[in-house]
Amino acid sequence: MNILTISVDRKLFDSGSDVSKRMIACGGMVDSWHIVVFNVKNNKQFYKDQSLSNNVFVYPINSLVKATYFFSALRVMSRILYKNKIDIITTQDSFELGLLGWWVRMRHHLPLQLQVHTDILSPYYRKESLHNRLRYFIAMWLVKRANGIRVVSSRIASSLINKWHIDSSRIFQLPVLIDSDKLMSSDRSSNWLKDKYPQFEHIFLMASRFSKEKNIALAIESMVTIVKECPRVGLIIIGEGLEKGLLESLVKKLLLEDNVVFLSWKENLADYYKGADAFILSSNYEGYAMTIVEAMMMGQLVIATDVGIVGEILINMENGLVVPVGDQKKLTEAMNTAISNKELGKQLQERAISIKSKVLGEKEFLESYKETLEKTIKNYD
């Protein structure tokens, strides 16, 4: 099987990155894997074609502006298709990359598998921006024409079936691969974070991209009520993104500078999961929410809004605490419960660790991924 993938992950040009290592592993189950990656030249990085292994190849789409992406991509992919017998096209999203994949599919008569990593059917997704509304309709049009759709959660799969009436035979649920060995490599004491921040008796942790859909402001605003009753509670927020300045300004406005700490993104969050008392995810929508799974695997108490794999892996009052999306009052109550009810928190943490058995290892993941590709090809035939 020879695969052509359309991606935006520039970490593929770093042979030592986790994503590159994963693609090398994926290459071991097929004849060849060709990956085209979008890159704007004004990113100050001009990439060249490179081989990650003897059968995994990465090709940059170097464009001065996004407007020329499409034509640059067609030129690169035409070269790949001319030199190689490609069996299937896959795209990292079901939006702009999906459109490009569909165009190549139609021109070269090849099966197409789209990946859906975002909960595009969440009403919060469409309400967020005009751009998202446009993407919603693009995705709806594309998934009805794809031969296979890989989704990362049952929430997305159910929505595609029930709302867009997609045939279940074309939907393949395969979660995000989690590097369990890397996650469990932490050798720090569970007290290290409080030793670093001795002003905090209880530490809440958040880790995500600073963007609108993550709704980090909801947790920050909940801290106003929390610190009135428990002044020595801290919220450590790890991440980067366009909304960082807005969030820092919100902290100052609410006079929470002594209780909220911002840290730059960490590739391995294991030490922080281990050192905090509870992990918070307050997103408006998620496709999967890998940090929830990672935190649970580390035996962390998780408080999350009802998004992503919540209801599938994280179950309210069984192995974590779940609150409605955007409900600040309920989030504040859950945070208070985490502080005051230590016995309940301990019980939820002990049950959370058991999800380790549900997380796919690399071998299982690769086998399942290959199966989705084979079924997509069969759907085309």
Report on the architecture of this protein.
Residues 52-181 form the Glycosyltransferase subfamily 4-like N-terminal domain. Residues 201-352 form the Glycosyl transferase family domain. Pfam families: Glyco_transf_4, Glycos_transf_1. The chain has two domains: 2-178 and 360-380, Rossmann fold (3-Layer(aba) Sandwich), CATH 3.40.50; 181-358, Rossmann fold (3-Layer(aba) Sandwich), CATH 3.40.50. It contains 15 helices and 14 strands. It has helices spanning 18-27, 69-83, 96-108, 123-128, 130-143, 154-163, 180-183, 192-196, 216-229, 244-253, 270-275, 290-297, 328-340, 342-352, 362-380, and strands spanning 2-7, 32-40, 50-51, 56-63, 88-91, 112-116, 148-151, 171-173, 202-207, 233-238, 260-263, 278-281, 301-305, 321-323. Strands 3-4-2-1-5-6-7-8 form an eight-stranded mixed β-sheet. A six-stranded parallel β-sheet has the order 11-10-9-12-13-14, sandwiched between helices. The chain starts with a strand and ends with a helix. The model has no long low-confidence stretch (mean pLDDT 93).
Assembly annotation? single chain
Number of domains: 2
Structural class assignment: alpha/beta
Topology, number of strands = 14
Let me know the average pLDDT. 93
Number of separate helices: 15
- CATH-defined fold name of the largest domain: Rossmann fold
CATH architecture of the largest domain: 3-Layer(aba) Sandwich
